[in-house]
Amino acid sequence: MNSEELVANTAQHVERLFAGEGSGHDWWHIRRVWQNALLIARQEKVDTTVVQLGALLHDIADWKFHHGDEEAGPRVAREWLLSQSAPEPLIENVCQIIREVTFKGAGVDTTPSTPEAKVVQDADRLDAIGAIGIGRAFAYGGHKGREMYHPGQEPQLHASFEEYKKNQAPTLNHFYEKLFLLKDRFNTATGQQLAQERHAYMQQFVHQFLSEWHGEEVPPA
Ligand code: ADP
Ligand code: NI
């Protein structure tokens, strides 16, 4: 099988697995990350097959909610790629991407070790910010039954992945705990550049949200 066929088969496989996922890790997220990754990869010296497979498989553990099992993603990806007779070095490079892309809290450095993983991490982070990022954050919060906002409840900068993951805070806090921090953590110049506009749009959104919320606090007649 050539690499184009391997990418096409993987896209079809992942699309089937993720069909109907409502938690923010749906097929459309994967598809946008794939497209973003290709856009960034054009400007970088990287293996585009590895980048595309990494983008397509980066959230593979989430279709079944294997939470807390960090090796689940690489394991499921490896099984799939072996079923497609992919060569071992390619499989290992893709698995390394899956291990390295995830945001683990404000205080945790997660700079990837390979140029391909840097591209996929940037592509995934672009999809967490801007208008899409706002939509995903509220979809995730709704899925978990969280409040949108709670006046007086301060955002927390989490020092570990465990702390970050068990956080139950209102969705607006997530902007301060993760989304606003991402713009300074892009690996590639293209990612960094695309992040600017999306970041500014989120800032404007939060500003408007808070002014509408607090503007409602008029004294009773
Ligand atoms: P990823 O590594 O793909 O960003 P996550 O599971 O951390 O995966 O996040 C999936 C989506 O849900 C992202 O858009 C993220 O910003 C959003 N999200 C994650 N945690 C929260 C939260 N506590 N509140 C609101 N949105 C969240
Ligand atoms: Ni993702």
TrEMBL record:
- What region holds the HD domain? 26-129
What InterPro entries has UniProt attached to this entry? HD/PDEase_dom (IPR003607), HD_domain (IPR006674)
Q: Which Pfam families match?
A: HD
Which domain of life, per UniProt?
Bacteria
Q: Which SMART domains match?
A: HDc
Protein name (database record)? HD domain-containing protein
Query: What species does this protein belong to?
Result: Rufibacter sediminis
